[in-house]
Amino acid sequence: MGKVKFTIDGKEIQAETGVTILQAARQEKIFIPILCDHPSLPPEGACRICLVEIEGQQALQPACTYPISEGMEVSTNTPRIRAARKFNLELLISDHPLDCMTCEAAGDCLLQDLAYEYDVTEDRYEGTKHHYSVNDPNPFIQVDRNKCILCRRCVRACSEINGVEAISVFYRGFSAYIGFGADSSMDDSPCEFCGSCVEVCPTGALWPKNSLGKGRLWQTETIQTTCPYCGVGCQINLQVKDNQIVKVDSAWEGPSNHGWTCVKGRFGYDFVHHPDRLDTPRVRKYLLDGKRKPGAKKRKPEVEGDPWQWVEVDWETALGITADKMRQIRNDYGPESMGFLTSAKCLNEENYLMNKLARQVIGTNSIDHCARL
Amino acid sequence: MPVLTNIEELKKLQDKARAEKADREENKTTIILGMGTCGIAAGANDVAAEIHSELKKHKIDAEVVSVGCIGMCHNEPLIDIQQPGLPRVTYTKVKPKMVGKIIEKHLVQGEYNKRWIYGQLPTGNGKVIEGIPAYDELPFYNKQVRIALKNCGIIDPESIEDYLASGGYGGLSKVLFEMDQIDVIEELKDSGLRGRGGAGFLTGMKWEFCMRAKGYPKYIICNADEGDPGAFMDRSVLEGDPHALLEGMIIAGYAIGALEGYIYCRAEYPLAIERLKIAIEQACELGLLGDNILGSGYSFNLKIKEGAGAFVCGEETALIASIEGKRGEPRPRPPYPAVSGLWGKPTNVNNVKSFAITSQIMVHGAEWFNSIGTKKSTGTAVFALTGKIEHTGLVEVPMGITLREIVYDIGGGIPDKMKFKAVQTGGPLGGCLPEEALDTPVDFDSLTEAGATMGSGGMIVVDQETCMVEFARYFLTFASAESCGKCVPCRIGGQRLLEVLTRITNGEGKSEDLDEIELISEGMREGSLCALGQLTPGPVISSLRFFKEEYEAHVNENFCAAGVCAGMFTYEIDPVLCVGCGLCVKPCPEDAITGEKKIPHVINQAQCIQCGACYDVCNLGAVLVKRKHELDMVEPA
Questions:
Q1: Which H helix or E strand runs over B252?
Q2: What is the ipTM of this complex?
Q3: Which of A4, A152, B258, B488 is least surrounded by CB atoms within 10 angstroms?
Q4: The domain A214-277 belongs to what CATH superfamily?
């Protein structure tokens, strides 16, 4: 592919043939506002915010779909463009609730950012507004169509990132809305709740239900981490407020998942702060005391000193007891009496070590993996 | 019939068809029935049944042939009787009970009932019947030049022999055996043919882009998704002359290097689809379509794709998406379909009429075509003439003719002694022009300059009883409901513009609303993705430009002079004009009109609901539309 020379706002730029004005501008860190485009999704040309002027062209053109060509002169911020953008923003706001003060997406909303930049403060049309009920019964994602700007990022994320095509546009014109499956609820559709739609939604139309009311972007700290669920090693961004995870966002630069997550990585973090979660090893008191397993009749949970009682110990103690018991079983009943089951949550290296432990340390070939179940 | 394997066989078949036709004309009685959708809607089926029973009754051996629409909607149903060696004689507005008398007089007694006869159409031998006007002399036809509609209403659309007899597939054989791809495109460029779908882009140029585009396979698409309210030009061609479309498409396929084509026809045209299917089958049987056409080595196949009724699918990229099985929505261009169209391959999309005209250009040559019309808009334009006009119907006129000639000479002017007010061209996305613009020549550039558009051929005439605000609102209701909802300016802008106009027609308009209209219209035109959104404000903007005083009367005086917008006018009986005939008393549903016989009547304003029954019934024009507040002042009590 050859290079093309052209200018954006007078700045000379070189970019690969075939890229769009928006892609070239992004490479050069030139900001062109847009609502419907996302770097990980194919361009749509729907929001008409990224309109730019091209020398010699009568009409304004969308930067997101217009391919660059040699010698092209692009302007991104003329009064004519600003007027067209403001018109579009005013229209969007005229069918959008004015509830930024309580909106989950405030501070993390492209529409809000653009309304701020273009000084759109109120609904200047006062025409018909949609009033959709916010009642999609699925367990993970709140669907608020009143806040939807029909940018179709979710539609493309569902088909292009997750490949499920659970989301599509229904009806036409002003009556058009985003729907699921055969226009039913999200959990009555092929949706797998990967949450890619939530991630790419530029407004608060799609929001994780378990993040509602937990804090907004400027109140949280972003911590990139590896998802604990399986060995793929997906990168995720935890939004943490007051030492509590309040939301999981995509880490688009994650090399093994490029921003994609499954339902567990995106929504399955409630175990982290769950009161029932064990965070220190425990052993039965009789084991700690080096005694034999007492009869069940001797269980007296309410009495202090019950031999069945769980006692919190350090890792060394817990693992020491486990190792002793394993050695004892092998000695008493032979290595074939034992079996090992490893986990998809473990890394390859951990599974390898487990294999060594089973075959070489214990001496059994009875080892399997949960992914085979 | 055997498959034609070379050009001689085609020529032989054409000659044979011609000879059979001449033989039929000389030796047989034929009754020709206008059986387009328009004719059928007007009752042609009942007329047909009556003809068959009358022929049986009189034991007359006559062939009954169905043809498409000849263009005279105002005279449907039509029957033509052609006796051996004589011209076709047309009877208009035929009712089933008239059939017996017509057949008895014409075929049994050999006389002509001139009261019911419209005119005569000469056949091959050129004979005329004295005393009956020829079509060429009739005002509806004498200014018309029929190229796209050449065969409509003349030949049997379900008979390929009829099409061959009219020289059909002659253009194709010439192209296949005497011209290469470049020749065809050059010929078309020389002809100056501009796309008849509305945008008016040079067809030859469009073909060249597609021909030169890299990619394989390439596709030809015929856009037969005619969706304008009150427009039926394409339907008429599809129903009346389907082979002309097929021939044009095969020629286009050859020129561009496409092996496959689609006809995207709206499902609301069942008869057109049926006739297309018959035509495709016939052409395939003869080897004029399919593999190795006429032994030339060129192969082309055609499929019909039925549209599901979305107006926006007339936009080429939405149409392509629809064929691909996706939601019918436009996408931004570039890339243009000529580079990346159907399935991402080079695709050429043209309107029905463009294809139908193409085959004629190939037969008669570019010079013949560009000698018709104006320099920049060559050839003819087809219009569906509707609304408040005497002769509604389908007309094909040379470009450059004035609107006045179409409305008054061909269209016969405004009925019921009403006054012309405006003519809307270009369908719901076009614009309206006032009386002062009637001398505008009809061509792509002049109409755009005047403030309207050529469009694909809708022409709606309105008289003084039409409120221009309501008229614009009607088109806007249509266009905004047909918006696909993809881009913001069209989806929400259309709705907001409609709200402003609805407000005005409801009597709730403010004077700032006129600026608001301009602002929203400008924003939609500037920002919308496709022509639907960009042109949706067209009727509003043009009516605001030419009929501003009507808008102002609505918003400033709460007055609708046309007497259309409810609650914005009142009816009053002019005591000078009223003769007290009492005709208006009975139709009044509220018994609001009182008065002695032969003494001017009075409307009780407290009871009047402005239904307009008295206005419609008064022969003297004594019921007047008045401003509301004038009466308020008269009746302070």
A1: helix B242-256
A2: 0.90
A3: A4
A4: ADC-like domains (2.20.25.90)
